[in-house]
Write the structure tokens for this entry.
Amino acid sequence: MKQSLQPDWRSRLWQALPWLWMAAGYLLDLWYQLVPGRWIVDSDLASEMVLADLLNQEGSIISTNWYYSTELKVVNLQWFYRLGLMLFPNDWHLARTFGMMITLALYAAVLVLLAHFAGLGRAGLWMAGTLMWPFGQHYLVYAIYGGYYLVYTFFYILILALILRSQDRSSRSCVRLWILACVVAAISGVNGVKQLMVFHAPLLLASAIVLALALHDCGKTEWRGALAACRAQVRLFVASILTAAACAAGYFLSNSVLSKLYDVKSYNFIAWNRSDDWFTLDRVIMDFFHEFGYQNGALLFHFSGIATGIGLLLGVFMAFCMVRLLLRLRTLRTTDQILVLLLICMVAVCGVCYTYFQEYYLYFWLMNLPIGIAVMAVELKTERFHLPGVRQAAAVALACAFTVCAVHTVRREIEKPSLAHKGLDTVAAWLVDNGYTEGYATFWNCNAMIELSSGQLDVWTLANLSDDASPDWLQKKDHLTTDPEHPFLLVDTQEDGPAEEMGLVQYGDCEKVYEDDRYVIYAFDSAADVHAAAAAARAAD
């Protein structure tokens, strides 16, 4: 009796393992948000919370009293943060954690949906679980913690899942799925141009290749019969055209209409800008393969060095999967083909764009990661293993590798945060405790101080601390028309420079009220004193 129950118990454990691993990654994400995330706040990410609070006060969808960055982000994290602020109005940290808890849960749901509709089976569940673990530094900071690129990824994963689902459905059901996918694409297009470049253009190219291969191999010599034989591939291609058009329409609405009504910077300044000292194509593409856990500066014979080496091997394995699957592309199902070619087209399109456009940052590659992991799942699912249990062992080995990289990334980010400024939470608490409510700081501290104080501080952004000019970037518009009362001035000596060299300090009638090993705070009687100091500094120059 015991012997007959044993295989059933093992089978159930194996069935539950990817779900348990996914849940463990989700809990690690929430722990990072809740515990170290209390102070690991940077002004760029904090601007989402400040905007969410402003939108709640106004009861609006888009604010006319906010300077946006390069995107309006009509549907973005602020909706989840707004809900969090309604529940925790006096604790913005809990509000952020609650918002990201919902966001990550929805992200996991669409990943599982994609795995199901793509027919990835258990390998797809491992894929979804992998993407819950913050295996790379940029993935942790900008996706799992900051959530910024998680929203873009959420949209295109949902669109892709709907398109794949439509392949074998009835005509009426197919049209419904396409309409839903187009609505999601249009909404994502309003958020900016990223979706068009990173997903829709590569999808259009990949689906065209899949259709061309199918037409070539179908054996038909006339168009009607050929298209009928390639019905699934035709649907993929048509859906990619329709969703790309819907996304373009959303972007047109944002860029040509909404940008005239609200203060947002346009991407129209981007130009072709290839120069000898710019990034080379091979270097840019290598950045993508480094996003799986490789980190510069890790000591070779320490845990960080081992984890970094594993991350590098994961990137190599990603490259192997691309080549291996491409060589046997015609033996794969249409759905698997589209995933493989989509990744290759994403890398190609993004690689060329990032190389020849004047704007490029490493974290731009984050939107490609889910398809990269999906291609790993395709390789695991379709590879012909001859020995029993090898497929399962490979899945567990990859899960362990990603777990090691995630633990290393989290530990390193806590010790040496890439964006947050250590000690700023202490400074913000001191200001609140000593009755300060309004003041000045440079950008990388201002919004972070507002969030760290749960909105008890209102901080005006200064371009530098030798002038009173305030940039029209990620702050309330009334900061350019009003002044703080009895303001403080924060000097971050590591970012701004020595306090005594700042023009507002040199020529200002101010008093030093706080100093530690990084930050210095000066108090002014009024904003008029700040303006007088700025005028004196300009005259001295």
